[in-house]
Structure formats: structure tokens, C-alpha cells
Amino acid sequence: MPVESDAELREILGMDRVAVVGCSTTPGKDAHDVPQYLREHGYEVIPVNPFADEIFGREAYDSLVEVEETVDVVDVFRPSAEVAGIVEQAIERDDAAVVWTQLGIADDEAAERAEAAGKRVVQDRCIKVEHERLVA
Predict the structure, then answer these.
(1) Which of 26, 67, 126, 136 falls 20 to 30 Å from 40 in CA-CA distance?
(2) What's residue 64's pLDDT?
(3) Does pLDDT of 69 surpass 90?
């Protein structure tokens, strides 16, 4: 069952390393502005985008599997059809405790697989909106 309670969301928002799959180089796009907001609020944002070399002055990784740093939360800015593959990569990582899909993005079967692998799942919610509501 995806995370719904404010208490659990606050706990997740207390984690500080967020790999953003689909992070954008384009200001004005949610996939750029939301990770920028997270950076401005003390999060370490690890960009994952195979079409970018660097975002926010950091190396952009081609895939979640290639991320060398420790990851707490995998924040997904990709279409729902791509969530299953991203979840499989998150499951391969021992460190990624949470898979978070942004507004309009969900895959119930992938969420069930992530939960069965011990990951917490937040679906169809904006991490920035939840941060502003519960933390900021």
C-alpha cells in the first residue's frame, strides 16, 4: 500500500539524498524546478538523465544503476510506462529506501513489487508540494 499518512511522508522528507530520474536541464520544467527547490532546501539531488552530462553543476548519470553515491529516495519524473523499469533498478539498490513518483505518475504493479522488496512507495504526489505542506 503506497504511503498516505502525513507522519510517514514527513519521515521520508527527512531523508536527504534524492536521485531524480528524469531530472531536466531546462528551467521552467517541473523536472528541473522541483529538484532545484529540493537543493535550495538542503537536499542532495543526484540527477539521472542519459541525455545530459551535468545538471546543477553535478554529473548526470545515465541510469539509476550507475549512480555511485548513496541514495535514500528515488524521485521519478518519467512517464508511468517507464516506472516498472525504474523500480527494478531501485530494487537492485540496497540503499534506496523509497520510490516516489511525481503527480500523474503511477504504476500499481511496480509499486507492489517495490513494496515486496522492502521499499516504501509514494505515488502520484509532488515532493515539493508535500515538503511545502509538511516541512517548510
Answers:
(1) 67
(2) 97
(3) yes
Q: What is the pLDDT of residue 58?
A: 96
Query: Per-residue pLDDT for 136 more than 90?
Result: no
pTM of the model: 0.96
Collapsed DSSP state (helix, strand, coil) of residue 31: helix
Which domain does 101 fall in, by range?
6-134
Q: Residue 76's closest CA among 18, 133, 1?
A: 18
Whole-number Å distance between alpha carbons of 16 and 114: 20
Between β-strands 17-21 and 44-48, what pairing exists: parallel, antiparallel or unpaired?
Answer: parallel
1 lies in some domain: no
Spell out the residues 6+ positions from residue 7 whose beta carbon is closer than 8 angstroms to its own: none
**Beta strand pairing call for 54-55 and 120-122:** unpaired
pLDDT at 1: 85
Strands, E, within the chain: which ranges?
17-21, 44-48, 54-55, 58-59, 73-76, 98-101, 120-122
